[in-house]
Amino acid sequence: MKLILLGAPGSGKGTMAQKLITNLEIPQISTGDIFRKHLKEETPLGLKVKEIMASGQLVPDEITIEIVKDRLAQDDCKNGYILDGFPRSIVQAQALDTFQDVDKAINIDVDKETIVKRLSGRRFCPTCNGTFHVSTLENSEVCPACGGKLIVRADDSEATVRNRLEIYDQTTFPLIEYYEKQGKLLTVDGNASVEEVYGRILSVLKQ
């Protein structure tokens, strides 16, 4: 099955993808993870997009499309995949249609203020790559997994989160109508626990 996960930043796309890959036995393709890998390794691409991502802006379409096209051509995607973070615009969706035929686009609908609280409260550990939330931490400066120093990623600051949501409204939200017209859109309420949202996704996929 070839799936796209839609939803604003912080709607839980990555979390749902991780649960779905176990159930469906297909890989998660996250453009964010690909870019962060390049950032960590300080590749030419990583250095190129570092400033773009830190400001909450989107990586140029031509770069993102080429990376996704290359990734979906790999052997582990032959039986399907879950796209997380792509497409993010009509241009990207139209480009995707030229080299892939996706089955369904799942829209995880979450209230914006809930998203701001989720993302601005995230803490990241550069030592073990763990991600945590202040609501579950006794000490927001120390990683509970390895003891490393937790940081707030630049793209998780409240100002950047709100900027990302504005960009989402302008460029990504129109994808909901795009896939609805194709008869591929499935929408679930994401204002619930992880298990509840996951159950809703499995339910609509069976319909």
How would you describe what is shown here?
This protein has one domain: 3-Layer(aba) Sandwich (Rossmann fold). The protein starts with a strand and ends with a helix. The model has no long low-confidence stretch (mean pLDDT 90). Helix content is 49%, strand content 14%. The chain is globular, with a radius of gyration of 17 Å. The strands form two sheets. A five-stranded parallel β-sheet has the order 2-3-1-4-7, with helices on both faces. The chain has a two-stranded antiparallel sheet with strand order 5-6. The chain is of the alpha/beta class and 207 residues long.
**Number of E-state strands:** 7
- For the biggest β-sheet, the strand order reads 2-3-1-4-7
* Beta-strand proportion: 5-15%
Q: How many H/I helical runs?
A: 9
Structural class: alpha/beta
**Low-confidence spans:** none
CATH top level label: Alpha Beta
Tell me the series of helices and strands, N- to C-terminal: EHEHHHEHEHEEHHEH
Name the overall outline: globular
Provide a compact summary of the structure.
49% of the residues lie in helices and 14% in strands. It is an alpha/beta fold and 207 residues long. It is globular and about 45 Å long.
Structural topology:
Blueprint: E1 2-6, H1 13-24, E2 28-30, H2 31-41, H3 44-54, H4 61-72, E3 81-84, H5 90-99, E4 104-109, H6 112-120, E5 122-124, E6 131-133, H7 158-172, H8 174-181, E7 185-189, H9 194-206
Parallel strand pairs: 1-3, 1-4, 2-3, 4-7
Antiparallel strand pairs: 5-6
Helix pairs in contact: 2-3, 4-5, 6-7
